[in-house]
Amino acid sequence: MGLLSDPVRRRALARLVLRLNAPLWALPVAWLERTMRSVGLEVYTQSFSRKLPFPDETHERYMVSGTNVYGILRAPRAASTESLVLTVPCGSDSTNSQAVGLLLALAAHFRGQIYWAKDIIFLVTEYDLLGTEAWLEAYHDVNVTGMQSSPLQGRAGAIQAAVALELSSDMVTSLDVAVEGLNGQLPNLDLLNLFQTFCQKGGLLCTLQGKLQPQDWTSLDGPLQGLQMLLLMVLRQASGRPHGSHGLFLRYRVEALTLRGINSFRQYKYDLVAVGKALEGMFRKLNHLLERLHQSFFLYLLPALSRFVSIGLYMPAAGFLLLVLGLKALELWMQLHEAGVGLEEPRGSPGPSAQGVGLASLVAPLLISQAMGLALYVLPVLGQHVAAQHFPVAEAEAVVLTLLAIYAAGLALPHNTHRVVSTQAPDRGWMALKLVALIYLALQLGCIALTNFSLGFLLAATMVPTAALAKPHGSRTLYAALLVLTSPAATLFGSLFLWRELQEAPLSLAEGWQLFLAALAQGVLEHHTYGALLFPLLSLGLYPCWLLFWNVLFWK
Amino acid sequence: MAVSHCFSRAASAFTAVLLFSFGCVAASHIEDQAEQFFRSGHTNNWAVLVCTSRFWFNYRHVANTLSVYRSVKRLGIPDSHIVLMLADDMACNPRNPKPATVFSHKNMELNVYGDDVEVDYRSYEVTVENFLRVLTGRIPPSTPRSKRLLSDDRSNILIYMTGHGGNGFLKFQDSEEITNIELADAFEQMWQKRRYNELLFIIDTCQGASMYERFYSPNIMALASSQVGEDSLSHQPDPAIGVHLMDRYTFYVLEFLEEINPASQTNMNDLFQVCPKSLCVSTPGHRTDLFQRDPKNVLITDFFGSVRKVEITTETINLQQDSEIMESSYKEDQMDEELMEPLKYAEQLPVAQIIHQHFEDSFPLCSALHSF
């Protein structure tokens, strides 16, 4: 006798289990198709499927498959050579149904106008960004992330600009705009200026980073608020996550923005007509464009919606930080050269052999650090099943914990490296290693700063001081603590706290730890699903470099 | 009886004397009128209207040119005497919410596109080379008649240009420019080839006055919408169409021209007053030092219209002496030119001799005609 002996209860339990296994929410594809067709668009669907590297909490399964629905409004008097996209990403956690309603209303309104010179694509995607990525890959006929997407039957020409819309309710108090995209790419500043113009014209309250615009720039308040918003943007750009569907469009050089309608406790609320008017204005202006947006900046930082800092102003900051590394490397080179010359005089023939041994003793730490980095990159996802079998954890947790385990194992390395390598090198060996490590770090940070300035600057600001100071003499524990605190993982941890602090929702340590683990999982997942580069950069590039400095610190 | 006879004879003689004197006075009055009849010196009118910019947001330049076209046609110049060059098609642009129209006033009060626009150079045909070829007449023989400026030495030509310009240049179609020196040289070529009697040059661009600084040929009057260092501004935008419809200077010139009819006696000084700085924000400028007549004697319709001068008179006018005068002046010109010829072309390629020889070889009959 038990729960399952009663056939009625057995059937009820079976039904319950079946319902739990079924998706909680799916896109109403047939209804969408019907409605879009009745509005007068050319409607097509696209199915896609993706095998995730590990099932995370939101997806709970390995295989994700869904359907995108999109309708094309053809320009009445122009050839279909260019198009604009209005996209509404739908997912189980954010059904975004209000935005779908606004999309359909806008489609009906646009269909009645004759002044469209570009086609307009109204896109509703399933599984948020996964669906958007599948659609974009099929549209541009590429396959960069290993997604299996069915080919698109309807196409509309080169996409000039896209707007992604996310609404949580039918009344909004403010519109938030997100510009940071995948790997820190940004749309052309003109698109943001366009949005801001229509905010002002329509009298809408528009926010950036979820905060109101600073009004008073003469006293200290305005600049401080601007600094907060700037730091928030730096943190978001450094994470390299696509903060909305627009982030995935940027890879194909389609300028895109995400607009989020926020319903909070404010006195004045706008209904969807106001939001729709702003969108209509934006699309009409984009319709007038004759070329791709290229006149304004592509690389900028925003302290406010109406102000920006251009790359010419902020890049020297990263440059100076890297100069520190360069100067330190130069100093070490000079010291090595002097010591080498000083030693050559008493010893005649063993001189070159000593230098030869010095180089050989460098290769081992380099190879071992790089191997650790490779392990950090490959093992967590590969070994998730093994870990899940031996330990009572889910696959996602297994991945994260393996990540942390390998990271910590690297800290134990220096005490073992010296057993592998017979150190005949004099104590200048650590200088050579540090020189190589400094140049390696400078190269990496330089390359990162060029493509994603925020990430490069953040890592440089944390790693450069301790990397420059690392040496085996002096107070080892202090330097070790400093080095651990500025390692990439610790930087990630710290920046999470800073991010929440700036958003005025500070974290406790336990919450922070949970968020940290979630961020690690998200980083690995996004690397595999969208090609985000934060995970490989940190694991294959910066972690080995940091390990070299750890080796230098513990040099015997 | 003899007294009455004498009296009647005296009376008739007196009336005859009176009539004769009246006749003399009347005859000289008619001759004055005849003098006035040929005062302006031109017998036909041409117009070359050029819009040099393309793209939807330059709607206003096309509207500018079409407004002048409309006025010029309304005042009598036929399409066969108008060379209209529009660099883009606004009326049929897919972005135009009112297809087949180009409006000059907001709220769509005035459609300057009309029903019978005849565009001679359209879209990519509007280039600097084509423009200069039209002006100087160096056109390939396959060019249709509607694309030629077939003016002669008794033609008054109106040249209107609009677009984007700068200090000393005017931009054609985002890819090339014409400089003020080139334009001045083109006008000099026209003068030497006797392709105009008088020329009115109007330009509505930023820093437009720089375009007429370098003119050096006689009988040219020039107007510009702004001085060097100033920008010409656009007039109001239309919210339904979404672009600025006209430039300020041409907007007010259009308003001024709408008042003109073929019989108007309005003169050029009134045109110089159009659009003061309070309305135009920029300072319109004009140049009359190369022009031989006094601007207050120059009618607007001398350039903007093609006015057939008709005077009904019951008197007969004897033009014999005038033709003698004309012939003698003609001979004088001939002698002057014969005297001046060797001096004029001393340093240059002896074009005249080459042409002269060419004509002699091929058309021996024409050797008596004076070549140019």
Describe the 3D structure.
The complex is a heterodimer of chains A (556) and B (372). Chain A has 19 helices and 13 strands. Chain A is an alpha/beta fold and 556 residues long. Chain A has 2 domains: 285 residues, Aminopeptidase (3-Layer(aba) Sandwich); 223 residues, no CATH class. In chain A, the strands form 3 sheets. In chain A, strands 5-1-2-4-3-6-10-8-9 form a 9-stranded mixed β-sheet, with helices on both faces. In chain A, strands 7-11 form a two-stranded antiparallel ribbon. In chain A, helix 3 links the parallel strand 3 and strand 4. Chain A is globular and about 85 Å long. About 1% of the residues of chain A have low confidence. Chain B is an alpha/beta fold and 372 residues long. In chain B, a hairpin with a 3-residue loop joins strand 6 and strand 7. In chain B, helix 2 runs parallel beside helix 5. The longest helix of chain B has 36 residues. At the A-B interface, helix 8 of A face loops of B. Chain B: Heteropentamer. Part of the GPI-anchor transamidase complex, consisting of PIGK, PIGT, PIGS, PIGU and GAA1. Interacts with GPAA1. Interacts with PIGT; this interaction, via a disulfide link, stabilizes the expression of GAA1 and PIGK and links them to PIGS. Chain B: Pfam families: Peptidase_C13 (PF01650). Chain B: Belongs to the peptidase C13 family. Chain B: Keywords: GPI-anchor biosynthesis, Signal. Chain B: This is GPI-anchor transamidase.
Give helix % range of chain A.
55-70%
User: What's the rounded overall pLDDT mean of chain B?
Assistant: 83
Mass-distribution shape of chain B: globular
Major sheet strand order of chain A = 5-1-2-4-3-6-10-8-9
What is the β-strand count of chain B? 10
Strand percentage of chain A, roughly? 5-15%
CATH superfamily of the largest domain in chain A: Zn peptidases
Pfam family, one (chain B): Peptidase_C13
Signal peptide (chain B): 1-27
Family (chain B): Belongs to the peptidase C13 family.
Subcellular location (chain B): Endoplasmic reticulum membrane
